[in-house]
Amino acid sequence: MAVAACKGLFNSECHGNKRMETKPSGRKRVFVQTETGSVLGIELDRSDNAHTVKRKLQIALNVPIEERSLIFGDVVLKNDLSTVRNDSPLLLMRNFIHRSSSTPCLSPRKDIQQRDQSGPIEILVCSDHISRIKKLVREIVEAMKIGIDPIPVCGGLGGAYYFRNCQGANCAIVKPTDEEPYAPNNPKGFIGKVLGQPGLKRSVRVGETGFREVAAYLLDYDHFANVPSTALVKVTHSIFNINDGVNGNKHQDRREYSKIASLQQFIPHDFDASDYGTSSFPVTAVHKIGILDIRILNTDRHAGNLLVRKIDGGGGLDQVELVPIDHGLCLPENLEDPYFEWIHWPQASIPFSEDELEYISHLDPFRDSELLRMELPMIREACLRVLVVCTIFLKEAAISGLCLAEIGEMMSREFRGLEEHPSELEFICIEARRVLEERNMLYYTNVRAVESEFQFEIYCEEGLDFTSNLEKKLAHAYCWPLSGNIRNPLSKVEENVDEWTEDDGNIIPSRSDEYAFTAQDNAATVRRPSMSMKNVSIGEKSWRHENLMQKNGYLSGMSSGNRTVNEQLAGSTSFVKLADMREEEWVQYLENFQHLVHEAFSNHKWGTVGQRQRQRPGTSCKF
C-alpha cells in the first residue's frame, strides 16, 4: 500500500490563519478535490467517514457524489479514514469514467470560500523537509495582503504563476494540478480529461505531476543535484483559471478559487541550457543531475528545464551553475522511455568521480520509498517500484564502472522507423518477470501434485498430522529445509539449455546451462533464462527484439504494417509493468532482477561510448 499509517498527527503551520495554530487535538483536516478541480478544506471529526466527507462536499460544492469514491493515492477510502494524514489531498472520482463531449465541467460555487476557512496558502502534508518553503510562503502571504498579485507564466502547456514578495520580485512558481495539460481548467486550450486519467504520458495521470515535483526535491538529498525547494500546497487566489464547460471558455469574474498546486522556489537565472553552450557546463553538475534523472526515470529532461546561472569564479572568470526544474513527468507508473538531454553531452562520457560513486553507493531505494510514503502518502506504489528498479540499476552500473552516458543508453529505447523497441533495462525486467511467472507456475503445479498424493495417502495412514505431513512433502518436492532458509523452487528444475539459435528468421529456444545466486535472506538457485544473458552488453543489442516480444505476448498481432502512428505510441508504455505484482512476488522479482542486472554488467564491453548511435528523436545537441 502506498499509504503509510501515521503514529501521530502532523499539524502543519498555517500561514495567514492564526486559527489553525490552536486547532484542537484529535481533529485533522483534509483538502478534497473533485475531478474537475474544485477544492474544499474540511475539518474532520472523529465520527467522520468517507460517506460523511462526500456529503459535506456535496453540500458545499453542489457536486454529485453517487457512484463516486474518495481516492487517496492507490487507496479507495471506505469508512475508515485513520490512514489519511493531516492536511492530505483527497480526490473525489467517478468509479467508472465514461465521459462524452457533452459532459459539463462543474465550476466552484460562489460560497466555497465562505465554507472553507483555511488560509490563502496551506502547506499540505507538512514536515521538517520544507522549512525553506515555510519562510517563502510567509513572504508571499504578506505580499498578497498589500495587493501584490501573482503573474501568469506565458510559456509551457499548463497553467503556471509567478508569486511575488513584498518587493515585487518573483519568489515562487505555482502550478495548479487542475491546470496541467489535458486537465479541466487548463488555460491554454489543452483540455479534454478529468483528474486521474492518463495525461501527456500514459503512466503519469492528469493532476499528479505536482506530487512528482515534490518527490524530486525530497529525493535530492543534501541538495546534491540543486533542485529548488518544492512543496505541495492549497492556494487560494482570483488569478487562477476556471473553464466553463467542455469548450474551455474562461470565467471572466474576479472570484477567488482554491487550488491544489506545487509551489517551487523561483531561482533567478541568466539562461536555460538551450540558450547556452553546453560545453561550458561543469562535469560535476551534469553528473549530479544525471544521477537524479536516472533514479527517478525522468521522461522530460530537455534543455529548457535546466536553468543556467552565471556565478563569479574569481579572477574575472565567469562560471555557471545548473538548476534542474520541471520534474512533473518523473516516476511514471510503468517503465517508460526516458528523455535525457545530457546523454549526448561530452560531460556524460567522463567517468564518475570518487565523491559521486560514494554518493551512489549510499543510495537506498527502500529508504527512499519509505520517505515518499511518509511525506507524500498519496503517491502510488507503482511509482515507488519504478524508483527501486532504477536505483538498483544505477548502483549496479556504477559498481561496474559505467559512465553516465552508458547508463542512459541502456535505459533508452531504440527507434527504427516508426517502431520503438524495449531498452536493455526493459529487456532485463521482462526476463525477470518471465522467471517469476515460471517459478509461480512450477510452484502451483507441484502443490497440486503433492496435495493429490496426500489425499490418497490420508486414507491409508492414520494418526498423521495433515499440516506437518504436507509440509514435509512440499519440502521434499522443492528441496526446502524444514527450518531455516528456503530454497527457490526453481532449483529442482533440470533442463538441457543450449544457446538461442536462429533458423529461417525464427528464434528456436534450446537450453544448456544453469546458474546459481545467493540472495540476502535465502539461498536460491535459478536456471538460466531463455535469453542467454551473457550476450547482453553495452554497445551491442543482442536481444532478438520482435520474436522475443511476440513470444512473451507483448507485441502479439501487431506490426508496423498494420498499426497507425498513434497506435504505436499508445502501446509504447506497455513493455514493463510493475504494479500488478503482489508483495511477495515483488520481493522475488527484485531478486531475479538484481541477478540479471549483475549478469548483464559482468559482460559489459568497454570502450563502446560513441560507437553506437541510437536513432532517437528530438536531441538538440550532437557530438
UniProtKB/TrEMBL annotation:
<keyword id="KW-0547">Nucleotide-binding</keyword>
<keyword id="KW-0067">ATP-binding</keyword>
<protein>
    <recommendedName>
        <fullName>1-phosphatidylinositol 4-kinase</fullName>
        <ecNumber>2.7.1.67</ecNumber>
    </recommendedName>
</protein>
<keyword id="KW-0418">Kinase</keyword>
<dbReference type="InterPro" id="IPR000626">
    <property type="entry name" value="Ubiquitin-like_dom"/>
</dbReference>
<feature type="domain" description="Ubiquitin-like">
    <location>
        <begin position="28"/>
        <end position="82"/>
    </location>
</feature>
<dbReference type="InterPro" id="IPR029071">
    <property type="entry name" value="Ubiquitin-like_domsf"/>
</dbReference>
<dbReference type="Pfam" id="PF00454">
    <property type="entry name" value="PI3_PI4_kinase"/>
</dbReference>
<feature type="domain" description="PI3K/PI4K catalytic">
    <location>
        <begin position="147"/>
        <end position="444"/>
    </location>
</feature>
<dbReference type="InterPro" id="IPR044571">
    <property type="entry name" value="P4KG1-8"/>
</dbReference>
<keyword id="KW-0808">Transferase</keyword>
<dbReference type="InterPro" id="IPR000403">
    <property type="entry name" value="PI3/4_kinase_cat_dom"/>
</dbReference>
<comment type="similarity">
    <text>Belongs to the PI3/PI4-kinase family. Type II PI4K subfamily.</text>
</comment>
